[in-house]
Amino acid sequence: MAAFDEHANAYDSWFLDNQNLLASELKLVAHFLDKESNILSVGCGSGLFEMLLAKDYDIHIQHGIEPSKDMAAIAEKRGLQVDIGPAETSEIAPNTFDIIMFNGSVSYISDLDICIKKAFDALKTGGKLILIDVPKESGFASLYNLASAVDTWEHPLLAHISPADPYPIELVRSANWRTSDEKINLMQANGFVDFEYAQTLLTHPMYANDQVQDVIEGYDRGDYVAICGYKK
């Protein structure tokens, strides 16, 4: 949370400097969303994705949860109603939302199990939970973990293999990347069924911003993966 408070502008700037990567990820975020649904965004950050979903896909998300006060302030200026605080301790009324999504926030949550439990209770019957993030087994996460271990992007081990404009090291340091299987197992343990998967960023991270990339089914090769499960 402290990292995002101190570097809220760096988060937005990085995405806006990597427009093709941003557009690829936005396509994946929109993939399992419905225009008419009541959607909660957990870890909504600055509301950048929510703003672009409304602009480019006519998908309007009004509610968010965000622990960083600085990020939440930006999201509120972009039209979200934000509950400021950790997802683990947030109070969400039961049977309220059609869709709950965690976009890029899973790796910054300490107790994901309790958050998934809360999401299950807060969803209406037939609703869906969507976890979207960089999986630990991906090329991006491997680079991020290496950069975190050496505490810099300016290291010989990362020379000629990292993106030209890498994710801010301050935000890399505070992440705990989880595998897709870990997330699926937690969702299954908390009652979610009928899983669907989608992925994008299918090239080496060095080339992720060269062009807008497609969204395809599965979770076996993408550096950004969406896992969708239903409450029945």
Question: What is the gist of this entry?
Answer:
This is Class I SAM-dependent methyltransferase. By secondary structure, the chain is an alpha/beta fold.
What features would you describe in this structure?
The protein is of the alpha/beta class. Helix content is 37%, strand content 20%. It is built from nine helices and eight strands. It has an eight-stranded mixed β-sheet with strand order 3-2-1-4-5-8-6-7, sandwiched between helices. Helix 6 (112-122) links the parallel strand 4 (97-103) and strand 5 (123-133). It is globular. The protein starts with a helix and ends with a strand.
* Strand count: 8
- Rounded mean pLDDT is 95
Largest sheet: 8 strands, mixed
Would you list the SSEs in sequence order as H and E?
Answer: HHHEHEHEEHEHHHEEE
InterPro entries: SAM-dependent_MTases_sf
Protein name: Class I SAM-dependent methyltransferase
Keywords: Methyltransferase, Transferase
GO molecular function: methyltransferase activity
Helix/strand layout:
Elements: H1 2-6, H2 8-17, H3 19-31, E1 39-42, H4 48-57, E2 63-66, H5 69-77, E3 81-84, E4 97-103, H6 112-122, E5 123-133, H7 139-150, H8 169-173, H9 180-189, E6 193-200, E7 216-217, E8 224-230
Parallel strand pairs: 1-2, 1-4, 2-3, 4-5
Antiparallel strand pairs: 5-8, 6-7, 6-8
